[in-house]
Structures are given as structure tokens and as C-alpha cells.
Amino acid sequence: MTPSIQRTGSIHDTKKWKEFEVIDFKPKQFGDYDIDAKIEYCGVCGSDMHTLTGGWGDITPPLIVGHETAGTAVTVGPKVKFIKVGDRVGVVGSCLECNRYKSDNENYCPSMIDTYNSKFPNGDIAHGGYSTAIRAHEQFVFPIPDGLDLDNVAPMFCAGITMFSPLKRHGAGPGKTVGIVGVGAKALGSDKVVVFSHSTNKKNTADVANVPLPLFLKTLRLHGKFLIVGVPDNKFEFHTMELMGNGGSIAATHIGSKKEILEMLDLAKKKGVKSIIELYSSGCSTSASGSFFYW
What we know:
13 strands; globular; alpha+beta; Rossmann fold; Quinone Oxidoreductase, Chain A, domain 1; 295 residues; two-stranded antiparallel ribbon
């Protein structure tokens, strides 16, 4: 395959989301600021499953998921300044014009282009990382520091930044105690990281109907914050009285900005942060949850 013709596993119907089809496709039109990256690793994210199964609504077929990608730049546009051929990179988009983009909040851009299941302004369909390559604007291609392994870095482009951004934006650090439902990390220097895992059955834990939200809200210290970083298929409901006793608040964050991603990668290098991963060789892997393609 060449960057102009890419190969992937895709679906056309969320009701048949386990029935992947191998296809060759043309990526979006190559622009002056675009980069083609050969994908060497791509993580499996909950967002992929929500989209594949139709939990987040309709899809634009062929659907090619995957947005935790890491690989090597193989082609760069004539106006690209910060990436060169051969660089190790991780690869999304926004309008590049609005105030949110200009204030390092492009991840909240109202015209943001998701990595997959969305369209570029010219009508081309955005395709994800379960593919041989990916094409993106240089603003959304991130150089990976030496010393970080590609397989460990790939999940950081969603799972990692989804945790790093809210901790950074809401002041995690010395003197603070952080409670994280399911996972925890101390690289930002918080005094304590308390990990909540109320069930050994992770399938049930992932269902918002089984999340004891009132209990979690009661653990907040005075004027503490409960930060939401996930988007379940179903509604997330609570009673305002559950926040009154400690003057708590609920907030949400959406992945992170380019500035934050670069900071996260630098922190991972300095602190020796490693992702907990399980690697699959290239080809097709079938499990109880369905079939996935790894290239």
C-alpha cells in the first residue's frame, strides 16, 4: 500500500459491527500542510466501541475507527514546518480559525473534525487509524520524543491525554488529593492518588447504570470537583442535593489540546510513564467482542 491508497478493516452497518471488511480506500485530498504517517501501532479505545455499535449515533460508511495512532512520517506537504520524513509521530482537526483554536482550546472547537466518522470541509470523509496509514494536517501530528516507545505512546493520544488534561486544568499537583475511578497516576506530583474500583467485573463497571455516583460525590472534600472524562451511551443522572452537602461541582473535559499533548509526552519521558498494553500482531484478531484488524 502507498499513502495515496490505504488498506483497512471497516464496517458499513452498526448492527453488523463484528463483520469487518478489508477495503482499499483513498484518504482525503493531500494539502500543502498535510502529513502521511505509516501506522505502526493503534490502540483500541472505548470511543471505537461506542461508534462501532451505534451507541453514539449514525455512522458515515465505510467506518474506519482507531484514534490512538503512532507511526512514522512518510510524506510531508511543501509547507509543513515542524515534521520531516522519518520522524516518529502520533496523529484530528479543527477549523484552525476560531478563538478556541487560537487559545489552545482547539479540542473544544465547534467545527472540530473528529479522527473518524466526520467530514472535512471539502466533503472528504475522515478515516481512523485501523489502517496502513493516516493523513492529517501538521497541527494535529505530534512528534514523539526519543526514549518513548511507539507501542507505549499510542494509547496516550486518547487514554493518556483524556486523563492528563483534566488533572492539569484543574490544578492537580503537590498538596492535592486525586481520586480516579478505575485507574491512577502520580506523575503530576499529587500527594495522594486514590483508585476506586467497586467491582471486579469491568463489564458492569463500564455501564453507567452500575456507577454509584452519589457515593463518589459524597467523597468530595469541601468545594471539590467531580470531573467527567467519558461519554456513555446512556444518560448520567444525579440529584443536585448530592452536591449541596460539600459545595461540590461537576465538570467535564474533552481529550486535550496540542499544547497539552506535547506537555504530556514530555512528562512521560521525564517520569518514565508506561502504558499498560497488550500487543497483537498484524492481521485479523477475533475475540468475544468481535473482530479487529491490526496492520
